[in-house]
Amino acid sequence: MLTKRFFKTKEEAEVTFEFVHPNAQKVELVAEFTDWKPMAMKFVKKDKAFKLKKRLPVDKQYHFKYLIDGKLWDNDNQADAYVPNNFGTENSIVNTQRLA
């Protein structure tokens, strides 16, 4: 799940990436804005979800995926869009466009 917060005085959006996987020991966010290097997500016990907050420039689109336990790839089931990648699967898209 993606949650976005926009700032009146900054040209960036705070995006919270949230992913639930019942058997995962570790979930990492892998994205264009991380140069496709995995970023560890924190497990929030009360929400039973892995979360990561990241500030991103507004009016952009970024490809991303989740890496579960270092071996299983998954998309965000509430991403803004999905696009084919070079591996025969799809990437999730997060859009930081401000809505009027």
Automatic annotation (TrEMBL):
Residues 15-96 form the AMP-activated protein kinase glycogen-binding domain. It holds the Pfam family AMPK1_CBM. This is AMP-activated protein kinase glycogen-binding domain-containing protein. It comes from Pseudoalteromonas holothuriae. The lineage of its organism: Bacteria, Pseudomonadati, Pseudomonadota, Gammaproteobacteria, Alteromonadales.
